[in-house]
């Protein structure tokens, strides 16, 4: 095995997986762990979920620093995974790592998912981050300027524009070296294309270990493509299509995210696959087992999964909803379905808190990553449980097709194009709209 390894520290599970999956696709042994305090030394790439997104800044900084101190090893390089829409305590966490790991190379762009950075500001499909639903939901009236956010936690910053990334590679390395020797602690990098990030990856990978990377899945993909990042090259497998997983048990799709992107993805899954849907009211989840309707909702879930019938379960929304209660609602949702978990052969979890809650509730603390269905949609298997396949996806990530594509992947079914008489179903059959609506009513769909 290579003497070089990569440690990815993320603040939620779906982020850890969508960042690390690029390395698995490049043929590297890759694992994701929910237990930051347990050293994992076997894999070439280890992604740790500190579950720190909803913590206080001080707690998040402590957990992130502790994870690096536990997991660091000779030859191991550090990648601090951050959310591409800058959620969580990422700046505080970077500040906690910087004295231990050197210059922070901050590159938040993820062009494959529409995230770019210009003049230190994040854009989502061309829209300033501050104007997006995601930002307004959790950070209304706050600035999304990368320089300002990093400087606010006490780090000295320097900018790196796209012109430097698109120029001479030697000049780029020199420019970064000058920043490193100037006393700056964080380099804020603009990037608009995969090629921009590739140039950054190539320059910094060859500069030794007096720096660490801070980015979303975009920069990680470009680092994973560099065979010389590791001391021993392995056969790259990223061009091979993900192998479909032929599953016989039930597939459970858990959606904790309330983003418009997730809503569109659920709509396509319902329309094309005819999967039954249950939308659990937040009031039930807030009260948990004490709620008078808890047993009834649990019975509805069990009626599907015990019969190996695929099911989409979502968290509803009401006037009392607060984004800060996401972890609590996700934990309750996991408890609701946990009694029937052994009936599953596949789990698709949207939202890092939702994925972590479900795996943690059922005693799963690490995954071996296998493949990627589309950018940000990772496939893995729990260590010690080869029967179960797990797909994770961040809530606001993915195409409209993401959940349906993940479902087809787990079912081992090719997708057939829509026809005028209806949408394609797994197995190649088509169903008209009235028949599809009847199927959904009988499979327990609620609204």
Give an overview of the whole structure:
The chain is α/β, with parallel strands linked by helices and 447 residues long. It folds into 2 domains: 5-229, Putative sugar-binding, N-terminal domain (Rossmann fold); 250-442, Four-carbon acid sugar kinase, nucleotide binding domain (Molybdenum Cofactor Biosythetic Enzyme, Chain A), CATH 3.40.980. 37% of the residues lie in helices and 21% in strands. It contains 16 helices and 20 strands. It has helices at 13-25, 57-71, 90-101, 133-139, 146-151, 162-165, 169-181, 194-205, 217-224, 260-273, 282-287, 294-305, 326-337, 352-361, 402-411, 433-442, and strands spanning 5-10, 30-33, 45-49, 76-81, 103-107, 115-118, 121-124, 127-128, 157-160, 186-189, 211-215, 250-255, 276-280, 311-315, 344-350, 366-374, 377-382, 389-393, 423-424, 430-431. The strands form 3 sheets. It has a 15-stranded mixed sheet with strand order 9-10-5-11-4-1-3-2-16-17-18-15-12-14-13, sandwiched between helices. Helix 7 crosses helix 8 (194-205). The longest helix is centred in the N-terminal third of the chain and has 15 residues, at 57-71.
Shape: globular
Q: Which CATH architecture of the largest domain would you pick? A: 3-Layer(aba) Sandwich
- Low-pLDDT segments: 232-242, 416-447
Overall structural class, as computed from helix and strand content, comes to: alpha/beta
**What is the CATH third-level topology name of the largest domain?**
Rossmann fold
Number of domains: 2
């Amino acid at each position: 095995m290579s003497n070089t390894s990569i440690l990815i520290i993320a603040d939620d599970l779906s982020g850890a997986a969508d960042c690390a999956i690029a390395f698995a696709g490049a043929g590297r042994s890759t694992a994701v762990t929910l237990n930051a305090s347990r050293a994992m030394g076997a894999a070439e790439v280890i992604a740790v979920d500190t579950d720190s997104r909803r913590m206080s800044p001080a707690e998040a900084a402590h957990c992130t620093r502790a994870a690096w101190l536990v997991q660091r090893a000779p030859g191991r390089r550090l990648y601090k995974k951050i959310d591409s829409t800058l959620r969580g305590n990422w700046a505080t966490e970077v500040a906690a790592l910087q004295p231990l790991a050197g210059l922070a190379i901050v590159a938040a762009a993820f062009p494959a998912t529409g995230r770019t950075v210009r003049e230190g500001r994040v854009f989502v499909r061309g829209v300033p981050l501050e104007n997006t639903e995601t930002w307004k939901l959790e950070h209304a009236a706050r600035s999304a300027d990368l320089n300002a956010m990093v400087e606010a936690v006490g780090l000295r910053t320097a900018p790196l524009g796209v012109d430097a990334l698109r120029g001479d590679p030697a000049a780029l390395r020199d420019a970064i070296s000058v920043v490193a020797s100037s006393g700056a602690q964080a380099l804020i990098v603009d990037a608009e294309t995969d090629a921009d990030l590739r140039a950054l990856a190539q320059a910094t990978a060859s500069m030794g270990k007096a720096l660490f990377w801070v980015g979303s899945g975009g920069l990680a993909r470009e680092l994973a493509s560099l065979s010389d990042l590791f001391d021993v090259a392995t056969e790259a497998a990223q061009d091979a299509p993900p192998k479909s997983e032929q599953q016989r048990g039930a597939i459970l799709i858990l959606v904790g995210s309330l983003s418009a992107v997730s809503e569109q993805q659920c709509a396509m899954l319902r329309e094309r696959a005819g999967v039954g849907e249950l939308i659990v009211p937040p009031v039930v989840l807030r009260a948990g087992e004490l709620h008078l309707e808890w047993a009834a909702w649990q019975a509805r879930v069990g009626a599907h999964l015990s019969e190996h019938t695929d099911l989409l379960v979502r968290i509803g929304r009401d006037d009392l909803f607060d984004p800060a209660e996401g972890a609590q609602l996700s934990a309750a949702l996991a408890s609701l379905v946990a009694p029937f978990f052994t009936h599953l052969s596949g789990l698709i979890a949207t939202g890092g808190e939702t994925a972590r809650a479900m795996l943690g509730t059922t005693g799963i603390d690490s995954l071996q990553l296998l493949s990627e269905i589309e950018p940000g949609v990772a496939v893995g298997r729990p260590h010690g449980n080869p029967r179960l396949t797990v797909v994770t996806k961040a809530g606001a990530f993915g195409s409209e097709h993401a959940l349906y594509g993940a479902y087809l992947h787990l079912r081992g079914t090719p997708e057939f194009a829509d026809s005028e008489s209806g949408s394609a179903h797994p197995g190649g059959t088509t169903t008209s709209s009235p028949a599809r609506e009847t199927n959904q009513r009988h499979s327990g769909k609620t609204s």
